[in-house]
Design a protein that fits this description.
Elements lengths: L1 H90 L24 H9 L5 H5 L3 H12 L11 H9 L3 H12 L1
């Protein structure tokens, strides 16, 4: 009886092992066939995304180059304007100027391109006077606008704002009006 029990037990163990091996083998083959289909789809999607990333990086580089080129052009124009202003100052006959009504002291909206919302953003960042604005770089101003106002403020170009603020701070209202008129052209 003990021999029969041992034989039956051995038979049961062998049947269970064979069933487990068959189950493992069938599961492995099913997963492998399903995985390959999904892997192919994922690899195709991944390669498409890599191509898109490469295009976006190329676009980013070209936009940066364009921005640098435009910034250089604006700086050249700014230098030329300063040269013209200094030449005009030398060649002008000195005539008594009648005092002009100046805008409220440190009203940032005097600067062409700054409205109430941008003025508030700058004030929130501690730029409350024309002097402070004139000493702030355009890149920092642009970063403040984007960080506090969002992506829609990326279109604003503060390259000339420090110069305009300097003219306002020094009380050169005629020069400021001339400069702003040239900007509009």
């Amino acid at each position: 009886m003990a021999e029969r029990f041992t034989a039956d037990l051995l038979f049961i163990v062998i049947v269970l092992l064979v069933a487990a091996l068959l189950g493992f083998l069938i599961g492995y083959l099913l997963r492998k066939s399903m995985k390959c289909k999904k892997c192919a789809e994922w690899e195709e999607a991944n390669s498409t995304l890599k191509i898109q990333i490469k295009k976006l990086e190329d676009d980013k580089i070209s936009v940066k180059e364009q921005l640098l080129k435009q910034e250089g052009e604006l700086r050249e124009k700014d230098l030329r304007i300063r040269e013209l202003e200094s030449e005009a100052g030398k060649n002008k006959p000195v005539a008594p100027k009648k005092p002009e009504k100046s805008p409220a002291k440190d009203n940032l909206q005097v600067v062409n391109g700054i409205g109430p919302k941008i003025s508030q953003i700058l004030k929130n960042r501690g730029i409350t006077t024309w002097k402070q604005l004139s000493e702030t770089s355009p890149d920092v101003i642009s970063q403040h606008l984007i960080q506090d106002g969002g992506e829609r403020y990326r279109m604003h170009d503060p390259v000339t704002w420090p110069h305009q603020a300097k003219l306002a701070d020094e009380g050169k209202w005629e020069d400021l009006k001339t400069f702003q008129a040239e900007l509009r052209e």
